[in-house]
Amino acid sequence: MKKQKKIVLAYSGGLDTSIILKWLQENYDAEVIAYTADVGQEMDRKKIIINAKKLGVKKIIIQDLKNIFVKDYVYPMIRGHALYEGVYLLGTSIARPLIAKDQIRVAKKFNAYAVSHGSTGKGNDQVRFELGYHYFGPKIKIIAPWRIWKLKSRTDLINYAKKHGIPIPKDKKGAPPFSVDDNLFHTSTEGKVLENPKNSAPEFIFQRTTSPEKAPNKPSFITINYKNGDPVGLNGKKLSPAKVLDKLNQLAGRNGIGRVDLVENRFIGIKSRGVYETPGGTLLLVAHRAIESVTLDKETMHKKDEVMPRYAELVYNGYWYSKERFKLQKIVDLNRNKVNGLVKLKLYKGNVTIQSRQTSSNAYSMKKVSFEENKTFNKSNVERFINFHKRKLR
Question: Which of 18, 42, 196, 377 has the most Cβ atoms closer than 10 angstroms to its Cβ?
Answer without folding.
Answer: 18
